[in-house]
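Q: Could you predict the 3D structure of Glycosyltransferase?
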Amino acid sequence: MTSVAVITVAHGRHDHLRAQHASLARNTRLPDQRVLVAMDDPELLEWSPEAPPAVHALAIDRDPLGLPLAAARNAGADAALRTGAEVLVFLDVDCLVSPGLVQDYVDAVTTEPDLLWCGPVTYLPPPPPEGYPEDVEAWDSPHAARPAPAPGERIRGGDPDLFWSLSFAVHRETWDRIGGFHEEYVGYGGEDTDFSQCAARAGVDLGWTGGARAFHQHHPVQRPPVDHLDDILRNGALFHRRWGRWPMTGWLEAFEEQGLVERRGDGWGVRARAAGTCPA
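A: Sure. Here are the predicted structure tokens for Glycosyltransferase:
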């Protein structure tokens, strides 16, 4: 039987992680490995849930610039590959999963191992007082900005810019072909779009498989994400150096409207303030 590992990187969000694990325990196909990469969160190294699958936790330190999401995903993949995983499934810590997610990803990857596979993701509203129900599929309403094939259907040849690191799967050989995530990205943004560009450069197409449905648990966010402005500028500039264009332009334009950044040639920078003025 094909060996499959589910990899999650986390810092905090312990309740969301426990709920994710419970949804995995209800899957029609349990993963052979459950790899948890704790980013500057030693408490997670002690976590040992009663329900299978058993968790293999490893630690990665915080980078001075922020959480090392790219390096953490690579570390999780390396740990899974060393113990024989053939299919790598990556889940964001906030994602609950449908009962057929693991099996559908395994079917897609083993049938067409040369593709990078994603499943539809629904952004959930705030939970009711008793929490989200086990039958979370009743809340299914995938994000409209990305393909959402029905269960049992697949779409191939997707736009690399629509790749979503919230939920994806890849064959071990295709992972090696892509080369993993570029570890100069630290903090929020850019590393997933870079990964999909690396996939496209390696001749790896994007696919969407309808049976691998995930459900993103609600948490408060800033729109635009002003608390990640420095990360977005730094990672955006890195992406520009590597690919000749800027990612996350929607956020950058929203920052510009708020007077936080300005265009500088073909790039962006923090808007200079007039002498003697105070921040708002």
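Q: Anything worth pointing out?
A: The chain has two domains: 4-216, 226-270.
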